[in-house]
Amino acid sequence: MVKIYVVAGSVRPGRFNIQPATWIYELAKKRTDFETELIDLAEVKLPFLDEPTPPAQHKYSHEHTKKWSATIEAGDGFIFVTPEYNHSFSPVLKNAIDYLFVEWNYKPVSFVSYGSLAGGSRAVEHLRGVAAEVKMYDLREQILLPNYWEHLDAQGQYQFNDKHVAAANGIFDSLSFWAAKMKEARKELAQKKK
């Protein structure tokens, strides 16, 4: 069975990010076609990229990098949950991606984003370019949450609706399919390298 990881891509105090990350993770747990895990970068606590060797060489000197490598290597597909900061995505997510290379290769990724009127769409556009560079397959399916603060209840909880759930299941369907196909493709590529 394939593994789909939800990556919470903000570490700001009082962050909204954990709400959509937890929401889509809880929905994903109801699926039977894949396993899922929530990866919170606030808990991973990677320092600013401190490896002396470029990640494409796959030679890591620090334990935190080796642990991060093992985590991402085990995943078959990803959902990046990102804010939009100044027309781009969060620096902590960029740092987490930049630590590795081969562990991301040939794996599908989708996005949940939030921000002001554009709903984080500009952050996702930047993420698509980064994903392509680490040989990920970025899916069209995504969820955008524009002006998210307008949809919080009195307790500060975002009010997700049926359209959000339908969009999440669209992401899951596509990720599940492509994660399985690309897992087989990675096995085929590994055989060719032998």
Question: What's the quick description here?
Answer:
By secondary structure, the protein is an alpha/beta fold.
Q: Output the helix-strand order.
A: EHEHHEHEHEH
Structural class designation:
alpha/beta
Cα-to-Cα separation, first versus last residue: 25 Å
CATH architecture: 3-Layer(aba) Sandwich
Rg (CA only): 16 Å
Please give the CATH class: Alpha Beta
Main sheet?
Answer: 5 strands, parallel
Protein name: NAD(P)H-dependent oxidoreductase
Enzyme class: oxidoreductase
InterPro entries: Flavoprotein-like_sf (IPR029039), FMN_Rdtase-like_dom (IPR005025), NAD(P)H-dep_reductase (IPR050712)
Keywords: Oxidoreductase
Describe this entry's structure for a reader:
The chain is an alpha/beta fold and 194 residues long. The protein has one domain: Flavodoxin domain (Rossmann fold). 41% of the residues lie in helices and 20% in strands. The chain has a five-stranded parallel beta sheet. Strand 3, helix 4 and strand 4 (108-115) form a beta-alpha-beta unit. It is globular, with a radius of gyration of 16 Å.
